[in-house]
Structures are given as C-alpha cells and as structure tokens.
Amino acid sequence: MTSSDAISVLVQNVGAELKRIGEKIIADERISPAEGLYLFEHGSLSYTGALANYVRERRHGHTTYFNRNFHIEPTNVCVFSCAFCAYSRLYAHREEGWELSIGQMMDIVKSFDGKPVTEVHIVGGVHPKLTIEFFMEAMQQIKAHRPSLHIKGYTAVELDYMFRKAKLSTEQGLKKLQAAGLDSLPGGGAEIFHPDIRQRICADKVDANGWLDIHRTAHKLGMHSNATMLYGHIEKFEHRIDHMERLRQLQDETGGFNTFIPLKFRNKDNDMSDVPESSIVEDMRMYAIARLYLDNFPHLKAYWPMLGRQNAQLSLSFGVNDLDGTIDDTTKIYSMAGAEEQTPAMSTEQLVTLIKQVKRDPVERDTLYNVLTDYSKVSMKEVDPTLN
Ligand code: V47
Ligand code: SF4
C-alpha cells in the first residue's frame, strides 16, 4: 500500500465533514477558515497528524532542515510591557537590564570567527535610546568583518518603533537598513493578531496591520521573512485561524515568507503565570493544523529550546520540516519564561543524531534554504572537523 492509499483509507473512517476536509487536502485543495476551525474543534491528533505528515512528505519527503546561527540580543530594556514577556525590563528599571555597545556586539560576532555559522539573528527589547543609526553602524561593522554572514534582524515591533522615532516611512527605513546589511526579517512580534486578544496581552505595540505592512514592504524590497504565532494562552481556536488566515493572504500577495513558527506560550515569571500551558497533544495538533492551513508556506519550523528536544523530534511527524536552534541558541527570552532547555547549545552532531533517530534526513541549509550539507548522504566524520 502506498502512503497515498493509506491516507485515502484513513479518510474513509471519520465523520462526513472530516472526510470531506481530508479529501480536499489529499487533492491539494485549500481549506477554508471554517474548515480549519472544524479541524481544531473536531480533528483528532491522529487524523490531523496523519494528514499533516502526508502533506509534509509530499512536499519535502524526509528532509529536515536546520541552520547554524547565533543570536545577538542588543538589549532587554523595553518600552513595551507585554503580559507574557519574562525577558524585558521596563525603561524605568533599566539598571536591571543590559545594553550592548557596538564593540560588545562585535565581540560576539568575533567569537564565532572560524566557526561555520551562516546567520546571525539580532533581536531584543525596544530601547528608546537605540536609534536606526546605531543598528546601521552595527550591521556595517558586522558585514565589514564577515561579509558572508546573513543578518536576520529586528522584529516588526522593533522596526515600527525605530522608524517612527526616526520619522521614516516603513519603506524608507527598511531601505536604509537593507543598504547597511540587513538581509531578512525574523518572525517575532506577531503574537496573536486579533485585536480582542492583542489588546489583552500586548496592547501597546504594533498592531496586526502594522506588523503585516512591515513584512509586505520587506518582501517588496526583495527580503524574505518568517512569521510566528504565540499560541496556547488566552486565545481561542478562532483567533489562531484568524492569525493564520491573515498570513496566508499576505503570502498569496507576496510569496515572501519562508517559514511559520508556532511558539508555545511558557508561563514562568511573567504576568500570565496563572494561565496554564498547552499540552503536548495540543502542541502537536497546532503544528499539524498549521501545516494543513498554511498551504502556501514552504516550511514549518519548531524551535527546540522552547519545546524541548523530544517534543521537537515528535513534531517531525506532525508537519514540521525545520528545526531551529543549534550553536548557542537558548536565548534569554525563552530561558526566562521557563523554556525546557537550560543547556546553552546543541552541537550539530547532536542535532543530526536527533533527526536521524526519528528516521528523517538532516540537511543543513542557509537562511534562504539553499542546501549546504545533506547529512543523510555524508557521515559526520567526512565533514569539516571544525564542526561542533
Ligand atoms: O515575539 C516571548 C516570544 C518571540 C514568550 O524568525 C514567548 O527564525 C513563549 O520570534 N512564551 C521572539 N514565547 C522570538 C521569535 C523567534 C524565535 C526563533 C526564531 C525566529 C525566526 C523567531 O518570542 C516574541 C514572542 O512571541 N515569546 N515571551 C513566552 N513567555
Ligand atoms: Fe518588549 Fe518584545 Fe518583551 Fe514585548 S515581547 S515586552 S516588545 S521584549
């Protein structure tokens, strides 16, 4: 029996509506918002998971991408006060936080000299004194030191504040940053777009339209970007669908998103500590339905420092085809909110093993998903001995 025969049998054994949705997915037809909601409300883990795995293998086979990057967090001082954030320090309490100078940022970059990283991810709080000129200078120095390093930097929240402060339009601001070395945008700051929830968890930062407009403009300027969704707190399934629908529409328009990253809400040391965290079953259903709903997103990424290594392995059977977090990637934003992983890094060898243990093919990629090394074909010993 082929996998498409097996999936066809599976859709015969569920209720009429689930069967109809399953048949659409097998026929590669788009599901509607109502159908997505129906999957959240009625689809079992096994049913949504089997469909998501089918779609994942139809598109990517067993290939599981990872990327070697490191983070720079210029500051954790932030003018905003998102209720879920365990990381930031209000500007009024800035002495409890940190602010890196450009020299200190360069020391981090230089600490990776000779190491085969391909990307630096710059992300942090929104510090009122850090201007666009500061970040342009930092990126110019990074590029002068290591021109091939891809700079993925600044959430739409940081950018919105930076541009407003500099009195620049989104296009003007992004063009300046691009000229200084910015290559792509990370997906943070999206949280939940729907205003009913956004008002309650992060009322004062850029709204849905502002976030989407920054990514739309970046795509038009030729930059790629990612998208996230902070799920598993006070939002309802309808808000998750609303969020993914807005992303799907923008992706239809621009095609500029690379990957979607559902971020599991963690409840330690923040103003939402009374909100319980989602179960692993819910996490896997979230991944599965994201894979089915976002039919125009090529990649679905799990962030292992947040999810834990074993759950990240599990996610590779529920639609995920990309794992993030290699070199030193347990960033403070997560460890402060109760991330699973307290160890600061996973070596490439460990990540390759983790992927192989669940019978997937580990492939190292660059930020834009160009294949660098296919570890299903090459043994670790054959690869550069400087690998860590
Ligand atoms: O926007 C903050 C999240 C995000 C919590 O684009 C929390 O490749 C869970 O977006 N529980 C920033 N999540 C990080 C981010 C990211 C991470 C890895 C890769 C990429 C990429 C982007 O962190 C924030 C927010 O949604 N976050 N607090 C928390 N308590
Ligand atoms: Fe600031 Fe980002 Fe934390 Fe919100 S999530 S308080 S914008 S650092």
Describe the structure.
The chain is α/β, with parallel strands linked by helices. Helices cover 43% and strands 14% of the residues. The chain contains 16 helices and 13 strands. The chain binds ligand V47 and iron/sulfur cluster (SF4). Ligand V47 binds next to β8 and β9. Residues 84-86, 186-189, 191, 226, 228, 230, 261, 263, 265-266, 270, 303, 324, 333, 337 line the site of ligand V47.
What does this entry show, briefly?
With about 400 residues, the chain is an alpha/beta fold. It is about 45% helix and about 15% strand. It folds into two domains: about 5-60, no CATH class; about 65-385, TIM Barrel (Alpha-Beta Barrel).
Describe the SSE topology.
Blueprint: H1 3-12, H2 16-26, H3 33-42, H4 45-60, E1 63-67, E2 69-72, E3 77-78, E4 89-90, H5 102-110, E5 119-122, H6 132-145, E6 150-153, H7 156-165, H8 170-180, E7 184-185, H9 195-201, H10 208-220, E8 224-231, H11 237-254, E9 257-264, H12 280-293, E10 299-303, H13 304-307, H14 309-315, E11 322-324, H15 332-335, H16 348-357, E12 361-365, E13 371-374
Parallel strand pairs: 1-11, 1-12, 2-5, 3-4, 5-6, 7-8, 8-9, 9-10, 10-11
Antiparallel strand pairs: 12-13
The structure holds ligand V47 and iron/sulfur cluster.
The site of iron/sulfur cluster (SF4) has 12 residues, from loops.
What binds here, in terms of ligands, is:
ligand V47, iron/sulfur cluster
Ends distance: 41 Å
Q: What is the count of DSSP helices, taking H or I runs of 4+ residues?
A: 16
Tell me, briefly, the overall form: globular
Q: Low-confidence parts lasting 5 or more residues at pLDDT below 50?
A: 328-334
- Averaging pLDDT over every residue, what do you get? 91
How many strands?
Answer: 13
- Rounded to the nearest angstrom, the radius of gyration is 20 Å
Helix-strand pattern = HHHHEEEEHEHEHHEHHEHEHEHHEHHEE
Give a quick account of the main beta sheet: strands, pairing sense, barrel closure: 8 strands, mixed
Q: Would you state the CATH class of the largest domain? A: Alpha Beta
Name the structural class.
alpha/beta
Helix content: 40-55%
Widest sheet, order of strands: 7-8-9-10-11-1-12-13
Tell me the name of the CATH homologous superfamily of the largest domain: Aldolase class I
Number of domain units? 2
**What percent of residues are in strands?**
5-15%
- Quickly give the CATH architecture of the largest domain: Alpha-Beta Barrel
What's the CATH topology name of the largest domain? Answer: TIM Barrel
